[in-house]
Amino acid sequence: MSIFTPTNQIRLTNVAIVRMKKGGKRFEIACYKNKVMSWRSGAEKDLDEVLQTDKVFINVSKGQVAKKEDLSKAFGTEDVTEICKQILAKGELQVSDKERQTQLEQMFRDIATIVAEKCVNPETKRPYTVNLIERAMKDIHYSVKANKSTKQQALEVIRQLRESIQIQRAHMRLRFVLPAKEGKKLKEKLKPLIKVVESEDFDDQLEMVCLIDPGCYREIDELIRCETKGKGSLEVLSLKDVEEGDEKLE
After folding, report:
1. pTM, rounded to two decimals
2. Rounded CA gap, 59 and 19, in Å?
3. DSSP string, 122-148
4. Between 150-161 and 97-118, two packed helices, what is the crossing angle to 10 degrees?
5. Nearest-CA neighbor of 122 among 158, 160, 176, 169?
6. Cα(151)–Cα(147) distance, integer angstroms
7. What is d(CA 80, CA 184) in angstroms, rounded to the nearest whole number?
8. What whole-number distance in Å separates Cα of residue 168 and Cα of residue 190?
9. Buried b / exposed e across 60-90, counting CB within 10 Å, b at 16+?
10. Distance of CA 94 to the CA centre of its chain
């Protein structure tokens, strides 16, 4: 005996549902788990990697596909790709309480990591540790917003933390001097960690002044100490403010 499956029903498994109410109706899209947040943060740019199917549903669990006329009335377009993008951006990700809690804890840690990478204590001119930023975020009772990207929230956290701790979003200006022998090889390893090279002088040794994100300081310090066996030197010259208007975190 064959089981009749209506043509407007599609069965999907291991699915993350994003739901949105619009024009008095409920619309849902079926996504791959873990991909929704990647899309929202900008890490994932390929919509096909996010959506299990490019159909819009009224109920994913029952496999009921939304009617074209309902979509057109609610969204003002029949372009399913555009509708899926709208639902992805503004819809609510349906997850279990345990999943939501795990996701929020991970986002909290990610936000603290970004803040620690981009900021310094202006008195000591040194970066903060992630743990210290996490504690400061708990002290101000920062509440993670699941539908906002971690980079956006990191900017918000920096603004709020200024009221409770000495914190400044800045690049560190460093000078390092490396023996000629290790200089060339080490320069290639340091390149990805450097934002801007301000000056470079290569005679019998390599001397470079550059700007870095504070979060890279420890890695640079360790690289220079290990690779030059203590013969290289690293000095923090000053801090260069990141302009308030520069609201992007790269």
Report:
1. 0.58
2. 9
3. TTTTEEPPHHHHHHHHHHTT----TTS
4. 60
5. 169
6. 12
7. 53
8. 24
9. beebebbeeebbeebbeeeebeebbbbbbee
10. 21
Low-confidence ranges of the chain (pLDDT < 70): 1-14, 242-250
Number of C-beta neighbours around residue 131 at 10 A: 11
What is the CA angle 165-167-169, rounded to 5? 160
Q: Please say whether the beta carbons of 63 and 9 come within 8 A.
A: yes
Q: Are 18 and 87 in contact (CB under 8 A)?
A: yes
CB count within 10 Å of CB 248 equals 8
What pLDDT does 48 receive?
Answer: 92
d(CA 141, CA 122): 23
Long-range contacts of 124-129 (CB under 8 A, 24+ apart): 125/172, 125/236, 125/238, 125/239, 126/214, 126/217, 126/236, 127/172, 127/214, 127/215, 127/217, 127/218, 128/167
Nearest CA among 173, 146, 161, 164 for reference residue 115: 161
Count Cβ atoms below 10 Å from residue 34 Cβ, excluding itself: 11
